[in-house]
Amino acid sequence: MTDAPITGLTLAADIAAGRSSAVAALDGHLARIAEREDEIHAFNLVTADQARAAAESIDQRLAAGEDVGPLAGVPVALKDNMCTEGVATTCSSRILEGWIPPYDATVVQKLEAAGAVMVGKTNLDEFAMGSSTENSAFGPTLNPLDTSRVPGGSSGGSAAAVAAGFAPLSLGSDTGGSIRQPAALCGVVGMKPSYGAVSRYGLIAFASSLDQIGPFTHDVADSAALFEVIAGHDPQDSTSIPHQALTDAGVLSVSERLSEGVDGLRVGVISELMGSIDGFEPEVLAQTRAAADALAGAGAKVDEVSIPSAIYGLSAYYLIAPAEASSNLARYDGVRYGHREQGKANTGLMMSASRTAGFGAEVKRRIMLGTYGLSAGYHDAFYGKAQRVRTLIINDFERAYQDFDVLLSPTSPCVAFPFGAKADPLTMYLNDVATIPSNLAGHPALSVPFGTGADNMPVGVQVLAPMLGEAVMYQVAAEIERAAVAAGGAS
């Protein structure tokens, strides 16, 4: 694992107090990027010049006595599917290669207002479709802990950037586990918020009813702080939760709960995700049970709980998400922006040729699957039935949360696996079996490192909470982290 990396909160405090400077912090991280980026390929683009100008401005403002925000001078990496004004945003796809957005995503604006310094745009599975970051048009990202293995996906570049010490903080997007699964495989903390708690404005859409932006960090405190920065109502996002609802639920002040412990809290371990489905490694299950035992030892009331429909989440997801992707990606036609094939006889041939050349194999697979599921004669049998399963999952979770404050499961069925080990699409899709239900329900979930599994690779334990239950979720995650540190299992 990495050697005691400096956290974002520690770095921000040092910079604000004058014990360090934003420029010095940036230089240290750029040096680490220069040392290992060619090996890891966490980034599609390193924005060193822009970052240096931002860091210099922060130091000048601090010298003038200004309060520059809670993340003063902290380097942050952004998944390359978030719009950044004047900086290329590609979704790791040839079809968007060279496209430069004319505006910033809301989360980018919030990071800048908080004093963070963007160091680059990170690699991902093309259009966030994948679980290993092997599907990028610009080549795979390697796991910093073992470069023969994948970092997970689709936000593999953001996870690897934090794990490698390239930035203390990063943002990813999570449609079916794309923050939590790579966090587990890279030994960092990854969190998916409640749907609507963080603005999607400026996030290039994959599946609009599932997508959420969330943080990668080294520890739970940094995750809570970064989440508080990016969370909040945004009138530019029609699905954004009103400010008063977020405030009433304590979503905007989760850091206050980190030291409260878990005495008296009710924790349910999801039985269907503890070996009922094939593919869960015994070491992963053992670490999840150990985390549950640690919570019980800290005073929580721990028991098993059944979410019967959880086993159908994977099937429902791979009908709903491709259907939404088929619609969302129809805009990439070679006409308005992005890649265009030249020399075609008419517009129809140009569009077809542009999409054929611009999209990779996995994106094409999902577009075709989604188009089929939405087609006349099949809509009710496939898409309609998947939506009914989604309702079953929501109802099952609601029943479980009547008896439990949070739920627990493994994040990923396995630790980081070698490149090419899961080339079969179905085998790859099974990596998301534990994370997908939270996306379908719209609930928050967080992966926290807890010990190691096969080949001494990190294991992630997932804490799930009801809608707008981020505060209690972080409270439990902090206790699991304390237990991991006590056991010597923290990264």
What does the secondary structure layout of this molecule look like, with pairings?
Layout: H1 8-16, H2 22-40, E1 43-46, H3 48-63, E2 75-79, H4 106-113, E3 117-122, H5 156-163, E4 169-174, H6 180-186, E5 189-192, E6 212-217, H7 220-230, H8 243-248, E7 266-270, H9 282-297, E8 301-305, H10 313-328, H11 347-358, H12 361-374, H13 380-400, E9 406-410, H14 425-429, H15 436-441, E10 445-452, E11 458-464, H16 470-486
Parallel strand pairs: 2-3, 2-4, 7-8, 7-9
Antiparallel strand pairs: 1-3, 4-6, 5-6, 5-10, 9-11, 10-11
Helix pairs in contact: 2-3, 9-16, 10-12, 10-13
Structure overview:
- By secondary structure, the protein is an alpha/beta fold.
- 39% of the residues lie in helices and 12% in strands.
- It is built from 16 helices and 11 strands.
- Helix 10 crosses helix 12.
- The chain is globular and about 70 Å long.
- The model has no long low-confidence stretch (mean pLDDT 96).
Distance between the termini: 5 Å
**CATH class designation of the domain at 8-260:** Alpha Beta
- Helix content, binned percent: 25-40%
How many H/I helical runs? 16
CATH superfamily of the domain at 8-260, called what? Answer: Amidase signature (AS) domain
Question: By helix and strand content, what is the structural category?
Answer: alpha/beta
